[in-house]
Amino acid sequence: MVKRVVVDTTSRSSGDVWYFAYGSNLHPQRRATRAALSPLDTTPGTLCGWRLVFDMPGVPPADPAMASIRREAGSEVHGLLLRLTAHQFAALVGSEGGDRFYVREQVEVIAYDDRKVIAEVFIAAPGRRLQRERTPSRRYLELIREGARLSALRPEYCAWLEALPHAEASPRARWASDVFLEVFMRASRGRCAGWRRAGSTPCSAPRTSRRCRDAWPRGCCWRRCSGSGSGCERWAGRPERRHRASRRQ
C-alpha cells in the first residue's frame, strides 16, 4: 500500500512561515523565554538526509557546544514544525543572533501526519562551525531531551537522545554562562523599552552597545555606557523603572 503524502501550502498563501526546531527550541519554555512565540500550528516531523550534530560554539564556560545539523545520507533528524507569522519568525531570527551564527535553509520535512512541509531551518554558518564536535552540557542536552518528549517525538528518537553523552558543569560555570547569555540576548533582541539619549529618539541596543564599556544584566538594558544620556528603563515586557545615568551630558 502506497502512503499518500499531502503537500501543505498553507504558509505560502497566508504569508506565514514554517520553522523546523530540532535543538533547544523544541522546549516550549525556551521558545517563550527567548522570543515569546505563540505558534499558529505545531506538528512533529522528520527531516531525512540530515544528522543532528554538536559543532556550534556554546556559551562559555558551562556549555561547550550547541546543536546544528549536517547533511548525511541515510540519517534523519526529528523535530517540531512550528507555523509562525512573519513577525514571529523575525523575532525568532533576532533571538538567535540574526545571521551572525546561523544560515537559514529551506528543507522538506515529512510531518508525522504525512504532510509534506517546506520549512525554514537554522544551520551553523560555515565560519562558525567547530573543527570537530564537542560533548554538549547536561543542562543543554536536557532541554533538548525534555523538549523532544513534550513535542511528542518518536519514542525511539527520544531514547537515542537519552543515550547521548553529556558533560557536567560546576554551579559557578553555569552561573557565568547564564550571565553571558543574558547580556548577549538583550543585545541581540534590541528591544529596549525606553533607553534614550538626551535630545534624541530611543536608540537600539545593538547599535549603541558597541560603545559600551561595561554591561551588567540588572534590569537596565546597559549600564555605564558612554553616550547613554539621561538613563534607561527596563526592557520591553518588564515593569518600567528608571535608573540614574552613568554620566550626564
UniProtKB/TrEMBL annotation:
Alphabetized UniProt keyword annotations: Lyase
Binding site for substrate: Y19, F20, A21, Y22, G23, S24, Y140
Tagged with keyword Lyase: yes
GO MF annotations, alphabetized: gamma-glutamylcyclotransferase activity
Domain Gamma-glutamylcyclotransferase AIG2-like: 19-139
Active site (record annotation): E96 (proton acceptor)
This protein's name: Gamma-glutamylcyclotransferase
Organism the protein comes from: Nannocystis pusilla
